[in-house]
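The protein record filed here:
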Amino acid sequence: MLARLLRGTGILLGLLVTGGTLVASGACSLGNVTQDDCKSDDECVLAIGPNSTCVAGYCTDPPACSTGHDCRKIGGGGACVDGVCVSAFPKHPQCSTLFEPTDLPDRPLAGPDAPLVIGSIFSIGETKDEVLTQSVRVAVREINASDKLNRGQRMAVVVCDNGGENNTATGAARDELNQAALDYLAGTLGVPYIVGPLSSSDSLRLIARLKEKAYPTVLISPSATSPALTDADDRLAMGEPGLFWRTCPSDTRQGVVMADDVIELDPVVAGGNVAVVYVSDAYGQGLATVFRDAYGLDKSQLFPIEEAKLSDAGALATLAADVDTYNPAGVLVITVQAGQTVEILKAMVGKPVAGRKFFFTDGAKDATKLLAPNLAAEVKQMIAGSQGTAPASPSGPIYETFRANMKSQFQTDPADFSFTAQAYDATYVGAYGVIWASRDGTDYDGRQVAEGMGRLAMGDLIDITSTAWPKGKSTLAAGGSINIAGTSGPLNFDPATGEAPGRIEVWAVSNDNFVTVTVKDPP
């Protein structure tokens, strides 16, 4: 009865341990549990938790745990709830809308057919972030349809929100969302790796929480480009691999390209003063500093604004007035989200500075916001003919296959957004790390995954595609190394920093579309 009751109701919280058998409070007692309640170990794993076995008709206790990593190591899967490993999927309000497969919450997390669950953290109230989760889901679908993971295990992903309603959470509220998402994914579920987050500030927050709680989970951001992340303390102990990786290049390169290959070559602005307007987060501060150092301290002036002030009409008016007083030849706007860029441009409408040449970075490359048809004519005029930089938009047959899959599965053109290919690549990179880490069994965590990711820049060249997955998988599962070529471009990871240098694209707005002007290779 016990196994049937727990499996039928999904109640695995508030369990009482009595006489070596796990029983639900108020549901039944040892006196009315008959010895024929279980007939196999699998039945106990599904009903009670990983490593529960059927002994003389009774299910034994599941193992104790501190995190879900313990459950995978001991029993091959499961989640850690109230100090014990359970098989039922525990719900979380921040992580309740996006799954792959979509019925993941109804599936057991332990047992013969249980998937390996990975995580993703993005501000899903933002269109750009949601598109990045679609890239992750396409990769998971491809791996499952190809050769799966070791021993035929399937993958699954849970997406957690860290932005709140309409991505408006800032400051302490955003810290709380980031911490709760990480505690659930890296703590309760014990996922070996997480794809995300989008921003550098959120990445720094999550790294700090990872260290504080000693979670052995890898973070792979497709879009956090701040130079500050290169030296972030992301190791749980001396001699262990770093747990923060990224499939996008550092802004150390993007800032130089903006200075030397965009503004210095612009026939109107070259040599003139440039106002650098930026949101004062880790991304904005880092990129603004790199650009100013490259372009010249005497030819540029910084105009920061706090993220929370972007909804403050008075603060925006003051910012616009200060920039206008500086009378620059051009204006560089640095924001994480294109909606933030639009708010800054709106504040400049009607001032002489609105007639200057505008330049943007990767955060603004979002067609749904920067090229929205309902923008005021004055704002559209400021955007028309503008130029920007971003990690290069991919091209070629591999990218076109990914693009076609995104269009067919989600009706999304990834070319309208930056970092889509990087998110897709990040999912495959982590999966290859899992292949290496799990080659001998389930006794692994993110530290071994990071070791495997460090083996992706040597050996035979393997494209990140579903057709090449079996070859790359078999090589790593046998203890070898591969050299992966990402959909976003070459991924020559430096295992010491977890970074892959990449190409930088110069893009422009022309006829209400993004067009590529040129692509700059790594130096």
About this structure: The chain has 16 helices and 22 strands.
